[in-house]
Automatic annotation (TrEMBL):
This is DSC E3 ubiquitin ligase complex subunit A. Component of the DSC E3 ubiquitin ligase complex composed of dscA, dscB, dscC and dscD. Its main location: membrane. Keywords: Membrane, Metal-binding, Signal, Transferase, Transmembrane, Transmembrane helix, Ubl conjugation pathway, Zinc, Zinc-finger. It comes from Lophiostoma macrostomum CBS 122681. The lineage of its organism: Eukaryota, Fungi, Dikarya, Ascomycota, Pezizomycotina. Residues 1-27 form the signal peptide.
Length: 812
């Protein structure tokens, strides 16, 4: 009875997990306030420099330095790279927008209204990056190590975010908010934030980093300049000096002068200090004292002009499309049809002023446009649409799954049918759905929209979990009772072989529930004489006599240990689920090789859900446990989301596609289905050797004619009491071909059964292979009654008792 778990320990476990996973709180010593004031003073100083300086005041080539962290000469950053990188960025702008852009950058024209670009670049773009030959490799010793905060306790061998390979994947999520804070009067410049996820193919295990950059966006021509900001590099204060032209310099200086000032004021008024409001750490905390120093990034992004396709009926390019109207329509749809347009795409040039590498997005003109097209993605609105459609599609698969489950549960309503279903198969399905539920609940943190659709789908998911748990409970109760029954039977078989069956005749009196299994009809195999004359009872007549006797494996009386174990079942389910979920969360941040390995393994284990059923079929020598529409439907429906994440390249979770792994997974499911099918057709043990599985009763024995008919079924139709002349002649006729005719007492029709003559050995009997399928047409019970397979299978769904003599039948 000690199985019931203490719920407090469970709660404790969850809290422990939460504590482990939560970011460590920033330690606040008593002198932090003065440190904080120092930081603020430093920021005011640097803002003053931003305020005072002019275009060209910072130029490493001309030995002009600024008193801003990272821009001083003694910091020894690789600022000589800035010139060539700016040149590359300018080339990119000109290549995409033509000479008008050049004139605009120079400030000789203001006329940029006709660039067909999105004014709001909120959204994401992804693609490949490639290392440019402009850059070089710099060692940590090339930098001024005294500039590193002195509380770094260990020598630095390699910086974080140091791209060492020649290429990799890159994804940029851009957020551009509206409001006075972020933009100027005419929206010529606005502040943006970008979250960059950059993978390095050259590193061990495919390392990748995620960090945040801040910068400015010029909606008039679609360019952006972004930078990281840290203690070693005050990127945001240096941003105007990184711009491509004097015009952009002054625009960004004007904006940053105001926004930085407001940010510092807010920083001053905070109760809890924010050490770095422009931190590049993803969770917004300032970089901890003990973390490795990291490489800084400066990125130049240029949006590509939007391409419109001519609509067929119009035959003209709608070149007068107002981008403002298009964007407004995307964001606040009024139902007007939008012209087909290309998605948000960008080119990128970036460099690290300290680590010295230069990266570019892969695409034309250096790479064929058929292979690489720089960075492509979609605007937030389109992404949200896609996410919503994905969620609705997932809801539909959940719904289908629920329907299959309910149908199966209806079919599996009797104890004997429940006994066949593998508990672990259903448990795996339930864990999968529970995982889906947790994922949906937390997904809105990642997707950030479609909350209603998400939660509705999560509810649907929870609904199927509830159904599955209910089904599990039914199965478990039946199978636990069956197990107890078998154990008692084994334990008592020795005593009952000698003592006469005591309470067989007397109806059971009201008794304690724990003794219920003992009252089940006792096995009579030992006592029954072999040559008892069969009692033929029509199936509809055998019920009334003893209504109080529980049927074997019938409605089980819920015993106390059963309940306690059921409780532990639920807590085990929850623990397992939460455990898997947190492990999965941890694995989302590891190197990509390990992550891919983990997710492939997880999916493989999950998609092995038919294996326990195959195993149970073998061990119990049964088949027909699950409906075919359940098997096929569940396999299909559960492959759909996995296929989506493995095969669709712009899926909502940005998972890396891997068609090879998907093929393996789908093939594995297919192999399991094949195994189930062949078990159904050829017998559940056809692919394993004799003796590997425990002995189980074989309902389809090979009938052999021996001397006294000891293995022959009772009630052969050739017996003299059969007065049907047709049957007589048939029996006589087929006997010569090694067949016998029996009578099925369920449908009262004849059964023609192949029989091996007494002399012949089974190996050289003719037509042995054909008999495998023929043997499936009849079933012989342990009490040697013979029936049609469909007849007895139908019967056994309700009752595990021989229709003729009421002996207990082993489950199918
Ligand atoms: C910026 O410069 C102006 C004068 O040009 C001065 O009045 C203002 O206080 C300065 N702002 C900051 C934050 O230093
Ligand atoms: C640079 O600024 C710091 C304060 O931020 C100041 O202490 C230092 O004297 C300045 N150095 C120069 C060369 O102006
Ligand atoms: C490193 O920086 C410190 C100030 O942060 C400066 O005093 C020192 O000269 C620099 N070292 C080199 C080699 O430039
Ligand atoms: C960056 O990686 C390269 C190649 O592994 C290495 O030589 C260099 O020292 C690293 N740079 C930094 C700053 O860690
Ligand atoms: C840009 O679009 C996003 C997504 O619709 C929106 O949240 C944001 O406010 C927009 N920004 C501007 C400046 O319009
Ligand atoms: C905004 O546009 C108006 C009219 O085009 C112009 O008068 C004004 O100077 C502009 N403001 C800024 C800050 O450029
Ligand atoms: C920066 O802002 C201040 C007011 O906050 C203003 O007086 C000054 O002129 C601005 N500087 C520049 C260069 O725009
Ligand atoms: Zn029949
Ligand atoms: Zn029988």
């Amino acid at each position: 009875m000690e199985v019931r778990r203490d719920p407090r320990s469970f709660l404790f476990f969850i809290i422990l997990l939460l504590i482990i996973n939560s970011p460590e709180p920033q330690s606040q010593n008593f002198h932090t306030r003065s440190q904080y004031d120092d930081v603020l003073d430093h920021e005011w100083d640097e803002l003053g420099i931003l305020n005072r300086t002019r275009y060209g005041d910072f130029d490493a080539g001309k030995d002009k330095w600024l008193n801003i962290s990272g821009l001083r000469e003694q910091d020894r950053f690789a600022w000589d790279l800035l010139g060539p990188v700016q040149q590359r960025a300018t080339e990119q702008v000109k290549g995409l927008l033509g000479t008008t852009a050049d004139a605009f950058l120079d400030g000789t024209t203001d006329d940029t209204g006709q660039f067909p670009i999105y004014r709001n670049v909120s959204g994401y773009v992804q693609g490949e990056w490639v290392r440019s030959s402009l850059g070089r490799v710099r060692k940590p010793s090339d930098l001024n190590t005294t500039a590193i905060p002195e509380n770094t306790p260990f020598p630095v061998f390699e910086y974080d975010r140091n791209l060492t390979g020649s290429g990799g994947r890159l994804r940029i999520h851009i957020t551009e908010l509206e409001g006075r804070m972020q933009t100027d009067e005419n929206r010529t410049v606005s502040e943006i934030t970008a979250r960059v996820i950059i993978g390095d193919r050259g590193s061990i295990g495919g390392n990748w980093w995620e960090f945040v950059l801040n910068g400015v966006h010029f909606p008039q021509f679609g360019g952006s300049v972004l930078t990281t900001t840290s203690e070693r590099f005050a990127g945001i204060f240096a941003l105007p000096h990184l711009q491509l032209s004097p015009r952009l310099y002054s625009a960004s200086q004007e904006l940053l002068n105001r926004t930085i000032q407001e940010t510092i004021e807010r920083q001053t008024n905070r109760v809890y200090p924010i050490w770095n409001p422009w931190s590049s750490a993803v969770d917004g905390t300032s970089e901890g004292m003990l973390t490795n120093p990291h490489c800084e990034f400066v990125l130049f992004l240029q949006e590509h002009p939007v391409q419109f396709q001519a609509r067929k009926e119009q035959q003209t390019l709608p070149d007068d499309i107002d981008m403002n109207w298009l964007e407004h329509e995307l964001r606040f749809p009024t139902g007007s049809s939008l012209p087909p347009h290309s998605s948000l795409s960008m080119s990128m040039v970036g460099f690290s002023p300290d680590c010295g590498f230069v990266v570019e997005s892969k695409g034309p003109p250096n790479y064929p446009p058929s292979e690489y097209v720089h960075l492509v993605g979609s605007k937030t609105e389109e992404f949200n649409d896609r996410a919503r459609h994905g969620i609705v599609a997932f809801a539909i698969t959940l719904f289908a799954q629920l329907l299959f489950l309910i149908k199966q549960m209806k079919e599996t309503a009797t104890p004997s049918t429940r006994n066949r279903v593998s508990f672990y198969t259903i448990a795996m399905l339930a864990v999968g759905d529970g995982f889906g539920f947790l994922a949906l609940v937390f997904l809105h943190i990642f997707i950030g929209t479609s909350q209603l659709a998400l939660y509705t789908t999560a509810f649907l998911s929870l609904f199927s979990v509830v159904f599955e748990l209910r089904f599990l409970m039914d199965i478990w109760t039946v199978q636990a009772t069956e197990q107890i029954r078998q154990e008692r039977q084994q334990a008592s078989s020795a005593t009952q072989a000698t003592t006469p069956t005591p309470n067989q005749a007397s109806p059971p009196t009201a008794s304690s529930p724990t003794s219920a299994p003992a009252e089940l009809p006792l096995p009579v195999t030992a006592a029954r004489p072999v040559d008892t004359t069969p009692i033929i009872i029509a199936p509809d007549q055998d019920d009334p006599p003893e209504p109080t006797t529980p049927t074997p494996g019938g409605t089980p009386t819920a015993t106390t240990p059963a309940r306690a174990e059921l409780g532990s079942l639920y807590s085990r389910y929850c623990l397992l689920l939460i455990g898997i979920f947190f492990i999965t969360l941890q694995f989302t941040t590891v190197r990509s090789t390990a992550r891919a390995f983990y997710f492939n393994t997880l999916c493989f284990l999950y998609l092995s859900f038919w294996c326990p059923q195959i195993y149970r079929n073998i061990m119990r020598n049964c088949r027909k446990a699950l409906r075919w529409d359940f098997v096929l439907g569940q396999s299909l429906v559960r492959l759909v989301p996995i296929t989506y994440f493995y095969a669709v390249s712009n899926n909502v979770l940005f998972s890396q596609t891997d068609v090879r792994a998907l093929t393996v997974l789908a093939g594995w499911v297919w192999v399991q289905i094949l195994a189930l099918v062949s078990q159904d057709i050829l017998g559940s043990r056809f692919f394993i050797r004799e003796g590997w599985a425990p002995p189980a009763y074989d309902y389809h024995p090979l009938l052999r004619e021996d001397e006294e008919g000891a293995t022959m079924p009772i009630g052969s139709a050739q017996a003299p009491d059969d007065d049907d002349p047709m049957s007589m002649s048939k029996a006589g006729e087929s006997k010569g071909k090694g067949k016998k005719v029996f009578d099925c007492s369920i449908c009262t029709q004849d059964i023609e059964v192949p029989v091996i003559a007494s002399g012949a050995s089974s190996e050289n009997a003719p037509g042995m292979s054909g008999m495998i399928l023929q043997r499936r047409t009849y079933m012989v019970t342990p009490c040697r009654h013979i029936f049609h397979t469909p007849c007895l299978e139908g019967w056994m769904r309700y009752r595990l008792q021989c229709p003729n003599c009421r002996e207990i039948l082993p489950p199918l």
